[in-house]
Amino acid sequence: xxxxxxxxxxxxSELHKENIFVMDTCRAATQDIRPMEVGILNLMPNKMETELxxxxxxxxxxxxxxxxxxxxxxxxxxxxxxAHMDNFYVQFDDIAYKQYDGLIVTGAPLAHLDYHDVKYWxxxxxxxxxxxxxxxxTLFSCWAAHAAMFHYFGKFRGLREQKLSGIYQHFVQNEHDxxxxxxxxxxxxxxxxxxxxxxxxxxxxxxxxVLATSKEGGAYIVASQDKRLVFVTGHPEYDPDSLxxxxxxxxxxxxxxxxxxxxxxxxxxxxxPMVSWRAHGSLLFTxxxxxxxxxxxxxxxxxxxx
Length: 306
What we know:
Blueprint: E1 3-5, H1 10-17, E2 22-24, H2 25-28, E3 36-41, H3 47-58, E4 65-71, H4 82-88, E5 89-91, H5 92-95, E6 100-105, H6 121-134, E7 135-141, H7 143-153, E8 158-172, E9 186-196, H8 199-203, E10 208-214, E11 218-224, E12 229-232, H9 242-252, H10 278-294
Parallel strand pairs: 1-2, 1-4, 3-4, 3-6, 4-5, 6-7, 7-12
Antiparallel strand pairs: 8-9, 8-10, 10-11, 11-12
Helix pairs in contact: 1-3
Family: Belongs to the MetA family.
Function: Transfers a succinyl group from succinyl-CoA to L-homoserine, forming succinyl-L-homoserine.
Catalytic activity: L-homoserine + succinyl-CoA = O-succinyl-L-homoserine + CoA
């Protein structure tokens, strides 16, 4: 079964073009099964681009998945039409009564702000506390992964002098964990961040397992032993040209960004990016949905808060 999304969500037409099977709400209503309930708390400015990236990864599963697109506040994002937000997103306060099988919290371009200076930090703390009681497994991406490590375990994030940007080789550290089932021992994944939490800090938390690392960026995938928290410091959801767009944007803003490593053919930004991460990115989210969500979640989601 595919992901279930609104019939008129713009992402649906793009997914169809990519030969990805999605089901609209009308067709899904005819199937007598209990679908997975997954929320995406989208913190990125360009909501439409980010929602498409994550929907693509969630579509490669035999499960039927209902998707709620969630916004953290009612402030209009700069890079997304207000009509899109009004039609397809729900306020967190309006779904706080619900329980979810899975929740994804995206990254956000907030690397140089202290957490307490983030305008919605208070609400983020409320959501993270709510998720511990009302979500079977929550996957935090990039900035959200560091923010969750600070909130749950008090681990501070440092900042790198140069942005970690490019496609890096990562190595499986626990081949028997179900989240990495089917992974090659070494695989590639995009990174785009200034934030850094040391491997020592991750390893110091007894209930966490570091599952995959890179030499350049340290921890990449970390999960709690009960499978209810997953931290992904990179961007397996990125499109082929996402790092290119970030690089060009930083140049246009007057900066001198580092060239994303292992990304452009012959390290020439006029050439096409080399795509080497999408298979493992898709496998990561398929494994998360199957082994961390579907295989562990109660049939009656109200039991989560008991």
